[in-house]
């Protein structure tokens, strides 16, 4: 069968690549075309557009690149119409993907499946109408979404487990990477403890967050500690180097080895998103922090518009504050440093909460569970 996938960022590329591998186990003759990235391309099929060409977030960046986004959407629709896939699988990225879902249903081309559901429980809950109308099956990776979609909105979904569990487990099952060798490659002392900085995967996120993170850890680089920035795959080196130089920091940027960095980290400063869950699964105490321009305004909007009390997946899944969150004006150098030192002191307490997190997530195998159900549904409707 023919599968058309649409992904809008690096984490989606990772999750979709594992889903594609699982689909091939259920349907060895599967053909893929996709908007995605290198990881999906390594599985096979045809990459039609790289996600970095469309990965814009926030009102101003989206407005400035509206022509590029609209052109990419038009080309995506034309590719689906001409290829006539057996299914379109959308991965997160709701601003773009829900419009693709509407097009596919209006054209009556094929079923639409949504893997990693839009987070409408936090923002834009009205989108449930679009999902109900245009999405044939939604595959959730967050356990609390079942009650939201089925209990509140009476829209049946499939909770398949969380793919980050699989990705971390797969990494840990492999032969360990030689940390000494990795450190030598990046000019890092393997004997020192690591403070990990994960400032996001988009340019604006990195500009907003990294300088403040570096300021918070400025005086902690010593004979015992070193600061490592985990570089995003689609971000140019010059962005990191410019921020590091301006911050007068000795931090090193490491690429393609975030899991290895987390495995050797004492503590981490992390922007919201999948990275907060990955950090927890490596048992690293963390501070979730996200700076935005006009911080006071953003905090006001957060209190009055967001439907959830937290922004980190760790806290949302556990339904309580397991790790501290510093958002908007709260994310300043002093507060970030103080909070980071506090979580380091509370390491044992935080690790106990992480154990509860694993129980709530359930069993591993999300890509296999999703692929098995997707292929079975498609075969029934053929």
Number of domains: 2
**How are strands sequenced across the largest beta sheet?**
3-2-1-4-5-6-7
Instruction: Report the oligomer.
Output: single chain
List low-confidence stretches: none
Structural class: alpha/beta
Shape: globular
**CA-CA gap between termini:** 10 Å
Q: Regarding CATH, which class of the largest domain?
A: Alpha Beta
Helical content stands at 40-55%
Strand content: 15-25%
Counting DSSP H or I runs of 4 or more residues, the number of helices is 18
Kindly state the mean pLDDT as a whole number? 89
Which architecture of the largest domain per CATH?
A: 3-Layer(aba) Sandwich
Number of strands: 13
CATH topology of the largest domain: Rossmann fold
Radius of gyration: 21 Å
Structural features, described:
The protein is α/β, with parallel strands linked by helices and 382 residues long. It folds into two domains: 2-161 and 365-381, Glycogen Phosphorylase B (Rossmann fold), CATH 3.40.50; 177-361, Rossmann fold. The chain is built from 18 helices and 13 strands. It has helices spanning 10-26, 38-43, 59-64, 66-83, 94-107, 128-134, 145-152, 163-173, 179-186, 203-216, 237-246, 258-263, 274-281, 295-305, 313-318, 333-345, 347-361, 366-381; strands spanning 2-7, 31-36, 46-50, 87-91, 112-115, 137-140, 158-159, 193-198, 225-231, 252-255, 265-270, 286-290, 325-327. It has a seven-stranded parallel beta sheet with strand order 3-2-1-4-5-6-7, with helices on both faces. α1 crosses α18 (366-381), α4 (66-83) runs parallel beside α5 and α10 (203-216) runs parallel beside α11 (237-246). The longest helix is centred in the first third of the chain and has 18 residues, at 66-83. The model has no long low-confidence stretch (mean pLDDT 89).
